[in-house]
Specification:
By secondary structure, the protein is of the alpha+beta class. It contains 16 helices and 20 strands. The strands form 5 sheets. The chain has a 7-stranded antiparallel beta sheet with strand order 11-12-13-17-16-15-14. It has a 4-stranded mixed beta sheet with strand order 1-2-4-3. The radius of gyration is 24 Å and the shape is elongated. It starts with a strand and ends with a strand.
């Protein structure tokens, strides 16, 4: 985390007027929004929401090299913005997002940093969020809604008191109260002006809007279901918005103006964690593997797994859904008795049966409620109890097949398998003579649709090529 104030930014100027990177390293005792007199009430609300944001977005992501790079960008922007103190937090989330709270709280996810391709694009995003703060959009929104800036949604269990909930969206989410379209466009204009005045390429905003659009298309094709934590869920996007961004940029001149600072940015994100964290386990294709718990299960082809700290969910054709989680259960409690203990709505007691899954004690049952039917499978393995809950519409004929496939795939990982699982990271590599977009993309590991993802990560349009000496981002486990 890096915290910068306007006075700190000015002190970071050298006698030649250049920004000194050393002046913007994370401070031991940072100036935070707590000391900001402007919008005290809103700053207090933001401060109260900070822990909830950390909980929703996986906490802070700590990497001194990365923090220094982000701090340098914020320092350059603060030197010309004259705004309040800013508390910048890098969130440990693969989602692509950035947002601001009143009083100077700014957030950017590691997922967004992985998608950006140079410092000017990061500057465009942060300057946009700073624009919301300096324009008092939070105050306007507060007055309009007369409610908290943020509201939370709780995790909904498939088999909880509301079985009619959309079982494809089980994950706990944080809904950011959206700014109006006019406020978004105003923040665009303010952000491009600030980043341009700070010496960055003003056309970066339009480029990154296009990258986010390509990222959204990639996700929608892959079937990922939880886009609510992403930037475009709370930031309207349209070709007209990109055109407006380019129009603002033309005020600084034709394309080619300003610095991109690509090498510094790529050096900062080299080694950045990509995708799931070790604490949450890993998704590899249609299989989920958790090295610390030592368990694994698979879903049928056509299903997409969504992994979070609260639970692992998967959605598939025909509105089928699967949820996997663990529960604390006394070792003396029989699994059939646990199923009968009241947590299953619409349970059919006559359906309860005991079984063994890959050498592990298990029990299963059926339930039905409000248009849905469920298979409940609980498994005791390595001293823990896990639940696999499969849901399907009442008129579906796929519940048995899917539940048997998923339940039957549950197993304990071997010692060798646990040792071999490594987190994925962004690695910056230099294109060698003879290498092509296709050959470099094929070298990526742990991800599907490699060629498409490589193009999205590197902002390469269809048909675009790479040349020897170019620096590109890949996903690797080394």
């Amino acid at each position: 985390m890096a915290s910068l104030a306007g006075c700190q930014a000015l002190s970071g100027l050298s006698t030649s007027g250049e920004i000194k990177e050393s002046a913007f390293r994370p401070a031991e005792t940072p100036v935070t929004v707590d000391s900001v007199s402007r919008n005290d009430r809103l700053a207090e609300l933001a401060k109260a929401q900070h822990p909830r944001i950390l909980a929703t977005y996986g906490g802070e992501y700590s990497d001194p090299k990365l923090e220094r790079m982000v701090a340098k960008v914020v320092g350059n922007l603060t030197a010309v913005s004259g705004g309040p103190a800013y508390r910048i937090t890098i969130l440990n989330s693969p989602n692509v997002n950035a947002f601001a709270l009143p009083g100077g709280y700014l957030y950017v996810t590691r997922g967004l940093l992985a998608l950006a391709n140079d410092s000017s694009e990061l500057a465009a995003v942060i300057a946009h969020e700073m624009g919301h703060v300096t324009a008092n959009h939070g105050l306007q929104r507060q007055q309009k809604e007369a409610e908290e800036v943020l509201a939370t949604k709780v995790v909904t269990d498939v088999l909880g008191n509301n079985p009619n909930a959309n079982v494809a969206l089980l994950r706990g989410k944080l809904r950011l109260a959206q700014f109006s379209r006019n406020q978004e466009l105003e923040a665009d204009g303010l952000g491009i002006k600030t980043s341009g005045q700070a010496g960055y390429d003003p056309y970066a905003a339009g480029r990154f809007l296009q990258s986010m659009s390509a990222y959204t298309d990639f996700r929608s094709v892959s079937g990922a279901t939880d886009a609510s934590l992403d930037f475009l869920a709370s930031h309207p996007n349209a070709p007209q918005r990109i055109e407006l961004a380019q129009r603002h940029a033309r005020q600084f001149g034709q394309p080619g103006q300003g610095a991109r600072d690509r090498d510094s940015f790529l050096a900062g994100i080299d080694g950045l964690l990509y995708g799931d964290t070790p604490e949450e386990g890993y998704v590899r294709g249609n299989t989920f593997m958790h090295p610390r718990l030592g368990v694994s299960f698979s879903v049928p082809e056509g299903f997409v797994i969504d992994n979070s700290a609260a639970a692992v969910t998967a959605t598939g054709p025909g509105d089928l859904a699967v949820r996997f989680d663990g529960v604390a259960l006394n070792a003396r409690t029989a699994l059939p008795d646990y199923i009968r203990s009241g947590w299953v709505a619409g349970l059919d007691p006559s359906s309860i049966r005991t079984l063994t899954i890959n050498g592990n004690e298990a029990a299963s049952a059926r339930a039905a409620a409000d248009g849905w039917k469920f298979d409940i499978t609980v498994i005791r393995a390595a001293g823990q109890v896990y639940r696999l809950l499969t849901a399907a519409p009442l008129n579906s004929d796929q519940l048995d097949a899917v539940a048997q496939t998923v339940g039957g795939s549950f197993r304990l990982l071997t010692t060798a398998e646990k040792a071999s699982l490594k987190p994925l990271r962004i690695r910056v590599v230099t294109v060698k003579p003879g290498q092509t977009v296709g050959s470099i993309a094929a070298s990526m590991v742990g991800v599907d649709r490699k060629l498409e993802l490589f193009r999205v990560l590197n902002a390469l349009a269809p048909g675009a090529t790479v040349s020897a000496g170019d620096k590109v981002k890949i996903v690797s486990d080394s």
